[in-house]
Design goal:
The chain is 43% helix and 21% strand. The chain is of the alpha/beta class. It has two domains: 160 residues, Vaccinia Virus protein VP39 (Rossmann fold); 38 residues. The protein has a seven-stranded mixed β-sheet, with helices on both faces. Strand 4, helix 5 and strand 5 form a beta-alpha-beta unit. The structure holds S-adenosylmethionine. The site of S-adenosylmethionine has 19 residues, from helix 4. One of its GO terms (molecular function) is methyltransferase activity.
């Protein structure tokens, strides 16, 4: 899946030739770094985790890319920054934001980017996670997913299956994740002011299919 997502970003860079790219929630750079390849542009990285940000920054330095980085959340970043970017991208990170924060961050992105490339899973919204149809489908997906991993199984279990998937069933802690459908992402982008919204299925993942949503900002 990550190869497909990096490939989709690489295509955007080839087509648009951006002078600047801002990656919001870049993690350890697993998507960003392979996408950059030989592309030389100014790169900004927003990532709240110090350890993950350090890995991305080290990768950018290895590639000799001119870069800036901010160890903050997307919410804190947009509250304090005014610069503009040719491309703002975010893969599997904005799902961490609640609805109000999604709106605020997307609205900033629209006003500060020529183009947004958003990558997210298409997750059907469910009223009751104990609904047997949804529940048994979820269990089957998790089982299939865990079978796909060898050495990485614990990492995926602790980093994704527990917080994102099983977190939906917690009766005591608030959700760590606010996944929505791609239809809903389209609506949110439209409401934030983006135009020319295009959606493409980029990879089939055991959890849900991943989509690239490209949209034109107003900057
Ligand atoms: C599943 S990882 C994806 C990382 C990277 N974009 C990729 O495609 O490999 C989600 C990332 O979002 C970051 N994140 C979580 N909450 C965030 C927030 N409020 N603002 C920005 N990034 C956030 C996490 O620290 C993590 O690095």
């Amino acid at each position: 899946m990550y190869e497909a997502v990096s490939g989709a970003l690489r295509e955007v860079y080839r087509r648009e030739r951006p002078g600047s790219v801002l990656d919001v929630g870049a993690g350890d750079g697993l998507t960003l770094l392979p996408a950059l390849g030989a592309q030389r542009c100014r790169v900004g990285v927003v990532e709240p985790s110090a350890a993950l940000l350090a890995e991305t920054v080290a990768g950018l330095e290895r590639l000799g890319v001119v870069h800036e980085s901010w160890q903050v959340t997307a919410q804190d970043f947009v509250a304090a920054h005014a610069g503009r970017w040719d491309v703002v991208q975010s893969s599997f990170a904005l799902q961490s934001l609640c609805e109000a924060d999604k709106r605020e961050v997307l609205s900033w992105m629209c006003g500060h980017a020529s183009r947004l490339v958003l990558v997210e899973f298409d997750v059907p919204e469910v009223v009751d996670v104990w609904d047997p149809v949804w529940f048994f489908d979820c269990v089957a997906r998790v089982e299939r997913g865990l079978r796909e991993y060898g050495a990485d199984r614990d990492l995926v279990g602790v980093g994704f299956v527990l917080p994102v998937v099983l977190g939906k069933f917690s009766a005591t802690s608030p959700p760590a994740n606010h996944e929505v459908s791609i239809v809903r992402w389209r609506e949110l982008l439209g409401e934030a002011g983006f135009g020319g919204i295009r959606v493409r299925r980029v990879a089939d993942y055991w959890w849900r299919p991943a989509y690239v949503v490209e949209a034109i900002g107003s900057s």
